[in-house]
Automatic annotation (TrEMBL):
<comment type="similarity">
    <text>Belongs to the universal ribosomal protein uL18 family.</text>
</comment>
<dbReference type="GO" id="GO:0006412">
    <property type="term" value="P:translation"/>
</dbReference>
<keyword id="KW-0694">RNA-binding</keyword>
<dbReference type="Pfam" id="PF00861">
    <property type="entry name" value="Ribosomal_L18p"/>
</dbReference>
<comment type="function">
    <text>This is one of the proteins that bind and probably mediate the attachment of the 5S RNA into the large ribosomal subunit, where it forms part of the central protuberance.</text>
</comment>
<dbReference type="InterPro" id="IPR057268">
    <property type="entry name" value="Ribosomal_L18"/>
</dbReference>
<dbReference type="GO" id="GO:0003735">
    <property type="term" value="F:structural constituent of ribosome"/>
</dbReference>
<dbReference type="GO" id="GO:0008097">
    <property type="term" value="F:5S rRNA binding"/>
</dbReference>
<keyword id="KW-0699">rRNA-binding</keyword>
<comment type="subunit">
    <text>Part of the 50S ribosomal subunit; part of the 5S rRNA/L5/L18/L25 subcomplex. Contacts the 5S and 23S rRNAs.</text>
</comment>
<dbReference type="GO" id="GO:0005737">
    <property type="term" value="C:cytoplasm"/>
</dbReference>
<keyword id="KW-0687">Ribonucleoprotein</keyword>
<dbReference type="GO" id="GO:0005840">
    <property type="term" value="C:ribosome"/>
</dbReference>
<dbReference type="InterPro" id="IPR004389">
    <property type="entry name" value="Ribosomal_uL18_bac-type"/>
</dbReference>
<protein>
    <recommendedName>
        <fullName>Large ribosomal subunit protein uL18</fullName>
    </recommendedName>
</protein>
<dbReference type="InterPro" id="IPR005484">
    <property type="entry name" value="Ribosomal_uL18_bac/plant/anim"/>
</dbReference>
<keyword id="KW-0689">Ribosomal protein</keyword>
């Protein structure tokens, strides 16, 4: 097994562990975050109805700067969209990623806008 295959396998196992414990409802949806090398995407998901309540992404937007800055701006954007849908608390789904750096910047920006998790 190559190092890359092992790394991806470990990440998918971490993701499975997190998703087994995290479940979003209409009152407290799941905030799912996906961070790639180029873009950031965040969604508020109601797992009971399997419905996306709000989403924010850097794809197609004119965000510039470092990835940490892009993550912070997506965090503020998803928090503002959550306020429009009258959501104040969420369950944070980190998708198997370590809570640091880019993911931490997104979470801190969302908290500053008033989102609780």
């Amino acid at each position: 097994m190559t190092n890359l295959a092992k790394k991806l396998l470990n990440r998918s196992l971490r993701k499975s562990r997190v998703r087994a414990k995290v479940h979003g409802t209409a009152e407290r949806p799941r905030l799912s975050v996906v961070i790639s090398n180029m873009h950031v995407s965040a969604q508020l998901i109601d797992d009971d109805k399997q419905h996306t309540l709000a989403s924010a992404t850097s794809v197609g937007s004119k965000l510039t700067g470092r990835m940490t800055e892009k993550c912070a701006s997506i965090g503020t954007e998803i928090a503002k969209k959550a306020k429009k849908v009258k959501i104040t608390t969420v369950v944070f789904d980190r998708n198997g990623r370590q809570y640091a750096g880019r993911l931490g910047a997104l979470a801190d920006a969302a908290r500053k806008e008033g989102l609780e998790f």
